[in-house]
Amino acid sequence: MKPKLYLLLVGIFFLNAAKAQNWGGGIDDNTLHFGFTFQYISSEFKFLKKRDWTKPFYDKQDETLPPIKATDTLNALYSKTSPGFGIGLLVNLKVSEHSDLRFTPTLVFNDRLAYYDFNVNGAPATIERRVQATMVDLPISFKLKSDRRNNFRAYMIGGAKYSVDISSKKKTNDDPNSALEKFLKNKRGFFSAEAGLGMDLYFEYFKMSPEIKLSYSLNNILTDGGKPSAFSQPIDKLMLRHVTFSLFFE
To answer: CA nearest 133: which of 167, 161, 107?
Structure first.
């Protein structure tokens, strides 16, 4: 009886293993497949400051009048991380057994925060500038995959994306009568480089992939329209960094 029992147990083991290898609905066998993603995003500005970034700002509203001193010295300029979220689609092209080309257009809702520690009328004051953005991200990535081990596979990913702000232009309407009621304006479109790590987890009828990725803008995203403000004057270049945690379903 014991040999028969052993054979039965071994047969059940190999049957389950065979079934496990087919989990994921055979998604990796398709040359082209689709999916969707949910993202949690943490963003922050990175400032490259001018040499004289601490100097007072003089507001020149009227060409016929001398500039008006709007602020005293600037003591500090910094950013804090701000959360956001995104939803998107996935188009995956199989290049080889260990590599894919991926396109993931995503709608992203995310604020960005900048803080200025000014001296205003001789007293210290911290002013927050919040940039509200609704972005369409258009990333193209190359995915390099390990061998599949049962229902697990690790991967690395890297690429570039173009981001465009589709939110209302009302946020660019400054108060013309106050030097400290201006927006910190960002360019509408910019490029970023991306790199990250993830894993493919195979379930019976689908594949889920948790992924963490870092992106960094490649060019200066600051724009002042040729009219510097107290918030744009200290900045030589303004860069944007994103840390994104994604869940892909394929």
So the answer is: 167
Q: pLDDT digit string (tens) for 95-151?
A: 999 999 999 999 999 999 999 998 766 677 888 888 888 999 999 999 999 998 889
Residue 26 pairs with which residues in a beta bridge? none
Long-range pairs for 87-91: beta carbons < 8 A, 24 or more residues apart: 87/36, 87/37, 87/38, 87/39, 88/36, 88/37, 88/39, 88/137, 89/34, 89/35, 89/36, 89/37, 90/34, 90/35, 90/36, 90/37, 90/248, 90/250, 91/32, 91/34
Containing structural domain, residue 216: 25-249
Q: Which of 190, 197, 191, 192 is closest to 246 using CA atoms?
A: 197
Per the CB < 8 A criterion, the answer to whether 89 and 122 are in contact is: no
Count of structural domains, the chain: 1
pLDDT range class, residue 5, cuts 50, 70, 90: very low
* Cα–Cα distance, 215 to 240 (Å, whole number): 8
> Do residues 155 and 146 make contact, with C-beta atoms less than 8 angstroms apart?
yes
Which amino acid type is present at position 11? G
Annotate 4-70 with three-state secondary structure.
HHHHHHHHHHHHHHHHHHCCCCCHHHCCEEEEEEEEEEEEEEEEEECCCCCCCCEECCCCCCCCEEC
In a domain, 9, yes or no: no
Domain membership flag for residue 216: yes
| Contact call for residues 138 and 130 (beta carbons, < 8 A) | no
Residues 219-232 pLDDT 10s: 999 987 667 788 88
CATH number at residue 103: 2.40.160.20
